[in-house]
Design goal:
The protein is of the alpha/beta class and 274 residues long. The protein has 2 domains: 56 residues, Arc Repressor Mutant, subunit A; 209 residues, 3-Layer(aba) Sandwich (D-Maltodextrin-Binding Protein, domain 2). It is 39% helix and 29% strand. Helix 4 packs across helix 8. The longest helix is centred in the first third of the chain and has 28 residues. It comes from Sphingopyxis macrogoltabida (Sphingomonas macrogoltabidus). One of its GO terms (molecular function) is DNA-binding transcription factor activity. This is HTH lysR-type domain-containing protein. Belongs to the LysR transcriptional regulatory family.
Length: 274
Amino acid sequence: MSQPPLSVSIRRLEEELGVQLIERHSRGVTLTTEGALVVEQAQEVVRVADNIRLFAKESLGGTRGLLRLGFVGSATFNLIPSLIPRFRALFPNVTLKLSEQVSAEIVAGLLSGDLDAGLLRTPLFDVTGLILTPLSVDRLVLALPYGHAFAERSEIKLEDLANQAMILWSRTTEPWVRTMIDINFSAIGIAPVVVEEASHIHTMLSLVECGLGAALVPSIVRRSSPDRLNFVDLTCKGSPIELGFAMAVREGQGRPLTANFAGVAIEVLQQNSG
C-alpha cells in the first residue's frame, strides 16, 4: 500500500537534512525537537515571502520605496514646507532623501541616475533626456534694498534698469534662468550692469539686503523675505516675465512613485495659491 504524498515528502526531507523531523507511533505523529525548529524556520520563510510580495506590490503601486529628490532654493518658500509633511502623511512607507541643489546639479543628477526627481525652474533651454511635469507658473519681480529709489513704485519696466547695479543668477549654476533674463534684456537692447552673481536665492537676497544691487527673483519669495527688502512688479514690453516650476525625471525612468509625488505637489500648490 503506497504512503500518502505528505508522508513521502517528509521522509525525503528527513533524508535530505539528515535528521528525524517527526516521531511516528500508532496514535499519530509528533514533532521532534529538530522538527519543531524546522517548522519555526519554515514559518519565517513564509512570512518573509509574504512580505516580499507585499513590498513588490506596494513598490509597483508607488506606495513604498526610496525617492531621491533634488530641489532649488526657491522651492523652500512655498512648496517644500507644505509638500513634504503632506506626502509623508499620504505615503508613510516611502523614504525621502532630500537635497537642495542648483539647477545644473539637479539636471546632472537626474541624467546620471543619482536623483529620481527634481524640482526646478523652467524653461530648460537645450536640455534633452528629461520629462517635465509642469507644477506652476510664476513671474519675476525686482528685489530692492530698503529705501531704494524704486521701492515706492508699483511697477518697474525692464528698461528702467539700464544703469542699475544688478545681482544676477550665475551662468554656471543657474544657466537657464540666467539665459531667460539675458534674452529679455537683449530684446530691449540693454546690457545689464552685473556687479555680482549668485547661485542660491537666499544668497541673492542677502546681497540685495546689503545694498549691493537689485535682483530679479521669483515673485513667490516676497511672501517669506525680510522686511528690509522691497519687491516691485516687473514688466518687459508691457508683459510680466514668466518662469515655470516643474518636476523633472529622467526619460524612461518614470515610476508610479514619482507620479504620486507630482500629484501631491500639484495639490499642495493649488491649496497654497487658493
